Amino acid sequence: MTARKRTSSVAKSENPPPATKEHKPTVASGEDFSLAPPKLGVIFVISSLLCSLYIYLLCFHYNVDDELKRPILINAGLSLVGFFVTLKLIPVAARYVLRRNMFGFDINKRGTPQGEVKVPESLGIVVGIVFLIVAIIFQFFNFTEDSLWLVEYNAALASICFMILLGFVDDVLDVPWRVKLLLPSFATLPLLMAYAGHTTIVIPKPLVSYVGLEILDLGRIYKLYMALLAVFCTNSINIHAGLNGLEIGQTVVIAAAILIHNVMQIGASVDSELRQAHAFSIYLTQPLMATSLAMLAFNWYPSAVFVGDTYTVFAGMTMAVVGILGHFSETLLIFFLPQVLNFLLSLPQLAGIVKCPRHRLPKFDPATGLLTGTRDGTLVNVYLRIFGRKSEKSLCIHLLVFQALACAFCFLLRHFLAGWYK
Known about the structure:
By secondary structure, the chain is mainly α. The protein has helices at about 40-60, 65-100, 125-140, 150-175, 175-180, 185, 190-195, 205-210, 220-240, 245-270, 270-300, 310-325, 330-335, 335-350, 380-385, 390-415; strands spanning about 5, 105, 120, 200, 215, 365, 370.
């Protein structure tokens, strides 16, 4: 979900505008379309802030075995190539989607000249395709035919690919949100069928005396939990949206936290299987972050493209997969703390208890350029109601800082509970 009003030939609005009113399009067709240049300066600042600690921990702080460090660095190099390929492909893809009338108008700029600009949407398909290509090529450098991780790696890619397809179908057909809740369940099937890892959970130490067990085998219930986690992660990114850069911004912040967590676990663990599981997670997170940063260069305020539901469901599924196969789903949920809060705030409207409009966005004042929070149950609106009116760019930065603080809180929580909780 993005702050857009769809005007494609496929999906029609329930309340069409009067026939007497004409919108003069800013762009006539994909042929004469010129995309605004990428905001590489912004991306340099964001990537420096998010990646510096990870690079320091990987290369200098921890003595990571060469057997693990080498494929991680190869994967990072391929991800960097993916970053530049994504930068080049986005303008090309933007022209193609405009030819198919897949564009929207930025609702948060309605009443201004920018609000009349046709913005290409569903460009998340570019990120998804480049991500898959990078992840597939990486197999050549790391996995052998008899590798124990190869089956789960390909199953993870199949689930992600399935979700990209379903997300693009949603962008084209405008699938009702109730159906969207079920789509990740189907996309996780390849992963669930191929999953051969443990299905046990460690009982928290304060509860061991009551349960009578230190380790509990959940069996098939664990796979049900995996499917539910994928459903939540996929849809939580999708509904915590509506601002230029927010969908991708929250993804890269969480991805940076995942990378830091993985390298910390690799550096602190002596269990080779656990270290390999966290390295596996890095192999998928680095391409996600690199390609997402390239898209953010075009999606940062003011947005030149919309990512569409294709990107949000793809990003959510990828992070769910790395959390499941990296065996840190509890930590992942704390990284998703703002998304959990947004879901709880949205629950009355999603459940139909309170009327749910199509776009649960703040109210934009064209005279001041500020957003005002509405009564809709989203974190965006609640934040505005608590802290007052803000510009779209300022609000997005505030929410991303809140996301980063939630991730930092997770690391502090793990530090203080280590040795006592588990």
